[in-house]
Amino acid sequence: MLAVVVAHRPGEWFEETLESLALQDYESLSVVVVDAAGSGLGPRVAAVTEGADVIDAAGVSGFSEAANAVLSAEFSADFLLVCHDDVALASDAVSVLVAEALRSSAGVVGPKIVEWDRPEIIRHAGYDVDRFGVAADRAGAHELDQEQHDGVRDSFALPSAAMLIRTELFVRLGGFDAGMTFRGEDVDFCWRAQMAGARVMFVGGAVARHRGGLVSRTGVDDVRLTQTRHALRAMLVNHGRISLTLFVPLAVLMAVAEVVLGVFTARFGRIRDVVSAWVWNISRLDVVLERRRANTHVRRVRQADVTALQYLGSVRLVSFLRRQFGGESQGLLSVAGRGVLGGLRTGTTRLAFLTWAVVVIVVLFGSRRLLSDGVPAVGDFAQLPETANDLIRAWWNGWSDRNAGAPTSNLGVLFFLGVGGWLLAGSVGLLRTLLVVLPILVGLLGAYQLLAATGSRRAQATTLVAYLLVPLASSSVASGSIPGLVGYAAAPWMLSALLRASRTAPFRSSPGRLAGLVPAAVSLGAVAGLAALVVPAAVGLVGLLTAGLVLGSLLAARPGAVGGLLVATVLAVPVIAFVALPTVVDVLATGPVWAPIADGRDGSAGTVSFAEMLRFAVGPDDSGALTWLFAVPMIVPLLLGRGWRLEQAIRLWVVGLVAWALALAAQRGMLPFGLPDLQLLLAPAAVAVAALCGMAVLSIEHDLRFSHFGWRQALVPVMVAASLVLAFGRVTVLETGGWGLVERDHHAALRFEPPTLVGAYRVLWIGAPEFLAVEGHNLEPGVAWAVTAGDSVTIADRALPVDTGRADLIETAISDIDAGRTTRAGRVLAGMGVRYVVLLHRLAPAPFVGEDQAQPVPAGLAAAIRNQLDLELVEGTNSAVDMFVNTSWTPMRAVHAPGFDEGVDEIADLEAYPITPGVPVFSGAGPPWSAEIPDGAEVLVGHTPRPGWELTVDGETAARREALAWARAYLPADGGEAELSYSSPWWRRSGQLLGAAAPFVLLLAWLRRRMDRH
Amino acid sequence: MRSVRVLAIVAIAGLLAAGVLVDLPDRPVPDRPVRYLSALAAPAGAVTTWFCPGGSGPDGEAELTIGLASASDQWRTAAVSVLPGGSDPSEARTVDVEIEPRGRMLVKPSEEVPGARWVGAVVEVDGTDVTVEQILAARQGDVGRSTCLTRTSSSWLVPHGATRSAVEGERFIIMLLNPFPDIAVADIELVADVGRDTIDGLVVPAQRVVAVDITQEITVAASVAAFVEVVSGRVAASWIQIADGPIAGRGARASTAVPGAAHRWLLPVAGVGAARQDVVAIANPSVDIAEVDLEILAEAPGTDVSPIEITVRPGRTALVDLSQQGRLEGIGPFSVVVRSLDDAAVAASIHSVTFAADADGEAATTVAGSTATIGSDAAAHSWLVAAEAADSEAATEGGGESSILVIVNPSTVGIAQVALSVGGETVHRLEVAPRRRASVALDRLGSGRFVVEVQSSAPVVAATELIGLTSRTAALGAAVSEPVPAVDIR
Prior knowledge:
The complex is a heterodimer. Chain A is 47% helix and 14% strand. By secondary structure, chain A is α+β, with helices and mostly antiparallel strands. Chain A folds into four domains: 1-340, Spore Coat Polysaccharide Biosynthesis Protein SpsA, Chain A; 352-375 and 427-734, no CATH class; 746-884, no CATH class; 893-985. In chain A, the strands form six sheets. In chain A, strands 1, 2, 3, 4, 5, 6, 7, 10, 11, 12 and 13 form an eleven-stranded mixed β-sheet that branches. A six-stranded mixed β-sheet of chain A has the order 17-18-16-19-21-20. In chain A, strand 6 (106-115) and strand 7 form a beta hairpin. In chain A, helix 8 (223-238) runs parallel beside helix 10, helix 9 (241-264) packs antiparallel against helix 10 and helix 21 (482-502) crosses helix 24 (560-579). The longest helix of chain A is centred in the C-terminal third of the chain and has 28 residues, at 986-1013. Chain B is mainly β. In chain B, strand 11 (184-192) and strand 12 (195-204) form a beta hairpin. Chain B is globular. The termini of chain B are far apart. Chains A and B meet through helix 27, helix 29, helix 35 and strand 20 of A and helix 1 of B.
């Protein structure tokens, strides 16, 4: 037995290394020290180890070449114990290793390597290696030694810090790859050993302490660089030809991905490492080929048998994902290395996996009709434009055709939808379905991670299942409520961030006060900002949740949390503003408006009772009395909880109560202003209910044991029984395959003429705010109106411009109709291009929505509209809608004779002086539009006049004037090829671009932070 | 910790209980103003569009003339859309007419569609200070007159008509006008003293009028009530009663229909006399028996008459011949309030026939004729009344009877202080005591054709009884302020 200690200017610890060898209970152990730096280690060696030889290897570069020096020396031994100069072996380590090598006929064996100063912490327990040559330690970071690795097992590779190698094998393999100076040489050697038919075994019974810290010794931080290039070298050298043709392209792809990620996260050092690794290996292809040839002489085992021992996936990818989505309390491939199912051996992990499997299956099964047939355009679930490019175009135009038209920056969501459409290969139908289904999964994911800090998978799983069972998601889908879905998706994440900000147990994540607060605030702001991109009112959830947690903290007699909550909420504001920058730009340009928040509601009373709110029975999905069963687990933490379980339970209860109180106030008509969908208001209550169910499990896990036997124990079976009844009772919601969403929308009943045939037009929608596909304007209690352009309402119409433009004209026209002041409203509406007036009495057509769920347009208003002499009722539509055609309609963009609007000093004059229809132009998708214009004509453009619009004819800008007392008429000097275009101002464009980039910036900052943390 | 737990449980339970308690009372009713949908006045009193269901062409039973009267100091423009009926294929035509300040003018719609047997009109005025009435001149020489409707409806009710064509020469015609661009389909239920009949699926083409001759359906009824249900679309409705008999009188009576029943109706012009027969018709379209009081609002001070109590069976029409009510003798002119005492809402109209001679064959009046006036279910503070009067001298020569403006104050408590203006100047002021009526001879207010603006401190009903050279007519004015339901007036 020969111990080969490779030393390079070792520090004071070297003597301890040598002493550990000297103290070995293995009798025939010789020691040779390879002085890699030629620094004259002889006296130090001689002082500790009598008879040890020193090889002067000055001039060698790196560990491998130095270790290989033993090959040329004349030593006789059956085994070589190669070790670093900073490794101290336990006194029995060598004998244990030798015994195991002999017993197992292993070629290479290695000890368990622990920290030098903290031997209770495992440093290495053997390597798993993927097919790209990248190693992952089987021991986790700072893993405590609890003898969990004390067995003997096969390992693909062992660290070179200390490994026992049969001398014959070492010689046959030609030692380490001398080209690999540091790091990776052990993986390469073990890989080749496996090829040669030798077993590589980890022996947990043998222990060695390793000091490490090569970087601090050399002063060069080339860890990533050397690891990357040597892993690539090992892959290029040791794979067979066939497998190499497969893995080289994959490795290239991964390298490109790493470079791209590095660019976006500004991690240029990582880019340099990756590129450098490839350059280094490509420049040494001759060496690679030479070593591949050498391998052919030592290969004893089929390549397939060797690769079968390697990790199937990519260590680097798994490492990245685990850094993002979970900690590394165990070895990186503790799951993967043992096979995917191997990770499920622990009970709680299995529970979590099975729970998620069931939840995902339930969500997918519950959404089966939506996934197969698509989502009907019910409620807010407006159609998407035909292509992803249309979404991007609508975003970039910066102009909304809503109402009378207005400039807007608040279309950011269209950009992300467009990108989503591209990623789905243009399948906007699938994108639309995902828009409905994904928020549910995002919300469930948020609910699952909500109690992750508690460390109880059971609590997490319970919260997850409870959040699925709370009828809010199904109610939101059935009601076609996008705000409800956004609230469902965002509320758990917001609550999680706020709990971290509260710095209360167990959510305190870092010792520093500000260090934990800022990330929590950024997370909170990011979630709220993203939610606000879709539903601006969702920002209000932050206030609701904060209020609940603050009041809950006070009730729990823990006022210390209040400061953190308030500071985090304040700090979140600029982040929200950053993510929702386009909306901020709009508000700065126009001033704040409440209409997009209230969604067409005023402060009048609703019909939902407090009991229904408590049951979340706010839509078609009413699970009846079943939902009351939630009360059982919700009350358990209040009764059983101690310490932080009780505190958090109180906070969660108050969060729910605050949400319910606000919803009650809104429904009772106690507020002087309107509020958004009830589903959105109740989202905090829903997540609080789910989290309380999780807290119930925690209370049982932690606190029940301290109670004397009595009624408290009886709570457990009661809770289990209630949960089972609840779970099975809620199965009915899966029946329709669409969460109760009806199968048909109004589209079939509403026969709109294509604008491309008849000319561009608008549609005036009147109905309950819940029935409108877009955010409406309040008309009177329970009734809102909205105007959209074209024959379909798309998601682009949902972004209500903060600039209301000349929407006041439409409002006045409706008001005149309602008051009976006109019977020729069609003429006035025609001046704004309104061709159709649609009254929505139900969410969807009959018989899919019954009369009991109808909220008819008030009879007086409906009668007043019917009294209009120029609004023709379309017969035979559906009892759920009344559709009128404006017989006085004129296209919103049309060519007219000069002076066509003579006598019209205000738009109401159209009642007496109706204009002729004109010839429609610019009817397709736009802006811009182009068309041929005749000589001597005026072009009416029925939009709110705002800077940026321009009509050019044959390249010349046409003069313009006010027309119909509100719109514009362009007066081209001559006819010709005309183009009507809109150019958004630079500051709006900037806002749009920054708004589009903001989520990516935050995402990448988050990724970078996660990567830095690990 | 125990105290925190207890406090938290109590607080949470308390808040939940508070939520339940807060939600116990009934929700506040949405504050949408409940607008009264009177057929006789626009909801907001701002009328610019008038629907005149019409009459016949010049060779028909009752030729239609549209009368426009302006109370404005400015020229007004009216777009008169003439809607043809019958088999005439011509389409609706619109003619613009200019009305001079404070002027009146007549338009013969049949001149625009000369081939049409029946014509109606929609009049759109560029101001709310113009009233529009339809004047129907019967071949027999009498004239029927009523203010045009201010709205359309999907249901209409005609309380009373008669079809004794053989004996009394009566024809009962219902005019349906569809001003909209889509067709309307109506069902008409006829309830007569001789039985019931229905006309189902009657199509009223877009922008046309349809005349339904009820005489063809029920031939010998002394009383026919018509209930029109428009199953698709909306129409405006009026009726024409032509008579030429010893009992029914001679000439034409015309009035608009009412869009629905109400609990109280005001019939401003009524009276009894030797050669005068006023009949109040009360139709009960409900499914309940209606107990109805006819309250008499006499003009003479200090005259109180006990109400006439009648019962109207469901779906039937009751006729009350005021000339048979002894209690009314000698009280002079009066108005009638028809009040339903229970849940059943009713509709009321008054039909008046004045004979040239009384039962003994002695001359009673110089002008014989018949009128019909639908009741008013609302009162208002402002009215426009189209009036015409011969000068005082001529009136005296005509036998002492003169056209009158009638103001009815239905309130039981408040005096109505009324100012009557003509040509922008107040020409007369009067006070109308609670539950009284007052009348002013029109020749005291002006001469010729003019418009009377009625401004009252309390809601009143204004109507005219016009006595021409050869005919009598009675008509309600046009309310030009927001109407107050009669049932709400205390």
